[in-house]
Amino acid sequence: MPMRHIAIFLLATVCSCQAQISLGSNQNTISITGDAEVKVVPDRANVYLGVETRNKDIAAASAQNDTDVRQVIASIRQLGVDSTDIQTDFYHVEIVYSGNAGTIVDYYKVTKEIQVVLKDVSRFEGLLNTVLRAGANHVYGIDFSTSELRKHRDEARALAAKAAIEKANDLAAAAGMKVVGKPTSVSSYSYGGGSWYGRCCGYGYGNSMYQNVVQNVASNGGEGAQGTISLGKISVTASVTMTIQIQ
Known about the structure:
It is a single chain. The protein is elongated and about 80 Å long. The N and C termini lie far apart (72 Å). Helix 1 (58-78) packs antiparallel against helix 2 (124-134). It has helices spanning 58-78, 124-134, 149-174; strands at residues 10-14, 19-22, 28-40, 44-55, 86-98, 104-118, 138-145, 185-192, 194-197, 206-210, 213-217, 234-246. It has 2 domains: 10-43 and 146-246, no CATH class; 44-145, Alpha-Beta Plaits (2-Layer Sandwich), CATH 3.30.70. The chain is of the alpha+beta class.
């Protein structure tokens, strides 16, 4: 079958952080935000596949779709993917009309989506080749992620807290003051850990965030799978805001 080309777009966003010093008669405080980004090699992938069939007869279109879907699922299981990691989660039937008035049924289009959780990303390219030969004719989305998201978020949060404290000391010194005591309030926010490329019959955009702290984390999976698919790294980021006393 002819090879289809899938375009993947990345949108890079730059985040700027702000600090504010409040001076009062009794207490001076500084509110500061630190951000950190941990780069992680993904070790799993969610793949969203589509099987589309067309026929002038709705029953024939549906029957052919069922047959093709069964073939695709069987081919996935032959790769060693557990049945619990395969799910049919989208079903769509469309009537396509023709004629001058658009009232004559040209054909019926039946589409089912299959979601696959691939826990061995080294088999990603093999999975795509296998399902396309088995009857899948759409790749709606690919989401690379990490199975240790909590661990990397904790690491990013610790780095962000360290960045916030360092920035507070630098800013206080620039104002001719110094940090005293522990923070009076702390809040944090974590995000990232996945990289979306499209989803369900349309296209989305992944993104990477440039922050104050960036740290690379090695993975047992190496720098990427063998073949023409390069996994690269995904971002796990955190932001920590503190209120700190200064004098």
